[in-house]
Write a structure and sequence with these properties.
By secondary structure, this protein is of the alpha/beta class. It contains 16 helices and seven strands. Helix 4 (103-126) packs parallel to helix 6 (150-168), helix 12 (279-298) packs antiparallel against helix 13 and helix 13 packs across helix 16. Bound molecules: NADP nicotinamide-adenine-dinucleotide phosphate (NAP).
Length: 395
């Protein structure tokens, strides 16, 4: 965080905003401008403001509405240092089933995120602010939906799109689609809501995870015309380096009938089903390997049997497939490592697992150059045999 810079925190006196602001002050932010409708209107924020000031941070409280350009312009003009970052956290919720949702309910929720974000963009462009970050706090609701939140989900998908739009202009913008934050913020203060989120398959996010995500969001830069580069086409899946989700995981396995996660049947989550389907198999496979290795330790001659090399080939293959999110049924130990989808990054990860399981090292080059899983299985059996014999000699 730059000592000579100023940062605009919209809705920053709310639950998440306080946590993020303290963290920014702790990391060297020396001027924070808070824009929200009630900022400075009562004494409720006095203690918090004093706390930031005691950390050496100047605080400006601007009472205003992010949907009004004149208010946003006033907040931007309040910066006594160069404005280098914006965090847009404003939120209004009016949960209602879509059938009974009034147009007013729709607009009330959409306004701070849609109108407000446009105004922040316009006002900072007009002020010629060269922003290092323009972070939008959005919600998983826009990615996977949440009952009663069509208005909020719509507003959140707008934020995802707006980040792409700013990136296409070569400007900083990133968006975090957040799940349920447990320790701070609106959801944590509304116990009914955290229970509903949990029951519908959301695992809580800790405050630290949120702050880590903020650090990532502040550092992701568009680096050119990314929206064009990332534009979806027939053959390339869509990917955006400046948008990510936080907290999309379920405490109940996806295969369990009691899993009520709204995203359980979402086609985009298919890969997680493959992993979830194999959860029992993964546990069983780790157990098989463990007990075989224990037997081989007391009887090293077992490692000379072809059964050992075959078993290791299959278990290494299963580990590789776990990493590649591929189902075990496609496993063929005679195929070449490249045909199985191994690249140098995965090989690095496989090497770390290998060292842990077989207690001796294998190089990435050996893994890549070994030819097939069968050959790797044989390498594991030979290496273990040697290791077991030499450790017996030592003792
Ligand atoms: N808490 C979570 O677990 C969670 C989960 C997913 C996403 N998020 C996202 O994280 C952000 C912060 O959440 P939170 O829990 O900290 O919410 P919060 O405590 O309700 O804070 C939101 C703030 O927005 C301000 N605001 C509302 N309308 C405004 C407007 N028109 N102009 C200016 N300020 C306005 C409010 O202040 P005033 O009333 O004074 O205007 C309020 O302080 C939100 O953007 C939300 O979408 C949070």
């Amino acid at each position: 965080m730059g000592l000579s810079a100023s940062y605009l925190m919209v809705g920053g006196l709310g639950g998440l905003g306080r946590s993020i602001s303290s963290w920014m002050a702790d990391h060297g932010a020396r001027e924070l401008i808070f824009l929200s409708r009630s900022a400075g209107m009562t004494s409720k924020d006095d203690v918090f403001v004093k706390e930031l000031q005691s950390m050496g941070c100047d605080v400006k409280l601007i009472a205003g509405d992010v949907t009004k350009l004149e208010d946003v312009t006033r907040a931007v003009a309040a910066a006594t240092r160069l404005l280098k970052g914006v965090v847009q956290m404003s939120m209004i919720l009016r949960d209602q089933s879509f059938k009974t949702m009034s147009f007013e309910d729709w607009n009330a929720v959409a306004a701070p995120k849609v109108e407000g974000t446009w105004k922040l963009h316009e006002a900072t462009v007009a002020a010629k602010a060269e922003l290092n970050f323009f972070v939008l706090l959005s919600s998983l609701s826009g990615v996977v939906g949440q009952p009663g939140q069509a208005n909020y989900a719509g507003a959140c998908t707008f934020l995802d799109a707006f980040a792409q739009y700013r990136n296409s202009l070569g400007m900083a913008a990133s968006v975090i689609d957040i799940g349920a934050v447990e320790e701070v913020g609106y959801i944590s203060e509304n116990h009914g809501m955290i229970n509903t989120m949990r029951a519908t398959g959301f695992e809580g996010i800790s405050e630290q995870e949120l702050l880590d995500a903020m650090a990532v969001a502040m550092l992701c830069h568009p680096g050119g015309n990314q929206a064009d580069e990332a534009a979806p086409s027939r053959n390339t899946p869509y990917y955006s380096p400046t948008a990510f989700v936080l907290g999309l995981s379920s405490s109940v396995p996806l295969t369990s009938p009691s899993n009520r996660a709204v995203w359980n049947r979402d086609r985009r989550m298919a890969a997680y089903h493959i992993v979830a389907n194999d959860e029992t198999a993964v546990a069983a496979t780790a157990e098989t390997l463990k007990s075989y290795l224990a037997m081989a330790k007391s009887d090293p001659s077992l490692l000379k049997l072809s059964e050992a090399a075959n078993l290791f080939a299959v278990e290494i293959g299963k580990k590789l497939f776990d990493m590649l999110l591929r189902p075990y049924k496609e496993l063929n130990t005679a195929l070449s490592m490249t045909d199985l989808g191994l690249d140098s990054l995965v090989a690095l990860e496989l090497r770390a697992w290998w060292r842990q399981v077989f207690s001796f090292d294998v190089t990435v080059l050996e893994i890549l150059g070994m030819g097939s899983l069968d050959a790797l299985g044989q390498h594991a059996a030979d290496g273990l045999h040697e290791l077991t014999l030499s450790s017996r000699e030592v003792s």
